[in-house]
Amino acid sequence: MSDIRERLINRERLLGCWIQTGSPSVGEIFAEVGYDWIAIDMEHSDIHIHEFTQIARAIYGRGPAVFARVRENDTLAIRQVLDMGADGVIVPLVNNAEDARRAVAAAKYPPLGVRGFGYARMNQWGKNFDAYAEEANDRIAVIVMIESREAVEHIDEILEVEGVDGVLIGPYDMSGSYGLTGQTSHPIVVNACKRVAEACLEHHRAAGQHIVLPTREKVQRAVDQGFSFIALGCDLVFLRCSAENARNLFSEDDRV
Question: I need a surface site. Which of 24, 130, 151, 167 has the fewest CB within 10 A?
Answer without folding.
Answer: 130
